[in-house]
Amino acid sequence: MTDAPLSPALTQLLASMPTSPGARIETADVDYRLDGTALQGYVAVDSASTERRPGVLLVHDWLGVAGYVQVRARMLARLGYVALAADIYGAGIRPSMQDAPKVAGTFYSDPALVRARARAGLEELRSHPLVDPARIAVIGYCFGGFVALELARSGAEFTGVVTFHGALSSSAPQDAANIKGKVLVLSGGSDPVVPDSQIDEFKDSLRAAPGVDWQIVSYSGAMHAFTNPDANAPERGAEYQATADRRSWAAMRAFFDEIFG
Predict the structure, then answer these.
(1) The 53-59 sheet, strands edge to edge
(2) Which end of the chain has the least Cβ crowding within 10 Å, N or C?
(3) This model's pTM is above 0.85
């Protein structure tokens, strides 16, 4: 599959992150397996340099490894990171918008499987020859935010985790004590999918794990999926908001500057 076709809005989003002079951004599908299941991720990297650098594991929204997460991977590669979009669903499982809730729902109800597949993606990223294995972050969008936090709660070793409008609830909130990296949660202030009650419960789980370094940022007026320019369903609580998108991306970059030093 490699680069998926992009909507005009996603094309514009990609153009907002210019490529540095001399950079050579390369993308490719990444085939790997877990317990006999074929998985297909997507990697983006600036191959003009052979120096090791931080790696970023991206976890897709409920549409799977499709155009949106690929654009974010390419944007991260333009910033100098090795970006791998992990496949949680399985190779070839890229649901339509109509089927996505059902597909994602099967994974929301199976956190053990989510953790295992996310960890498989993490190990795939860690094995990349241009990745510094001591400097790895995990980020996730919507469904992917849930997955990223479940991976952190599993005790996986990485430097930091960032979620963009991701679900914060967990069937094992006490596992927050296992989190080893720093945490940055970027949430919409008007997101009905992640209401204040869910944020409060998440805070309580982190307060019970005093060793965890965490931040939560809420963007005024932002609904669910506020970073995706193709999101346009305010009647269902999901809509792009350019200001929150810009601010959250800047917050992630500042967080990376801090954790990667």
Answers:
(1) 25-34, 37-46, 82-86, 53-59, 131-141, 160-164, 182-188, 214-219
(2) C
(3) yes
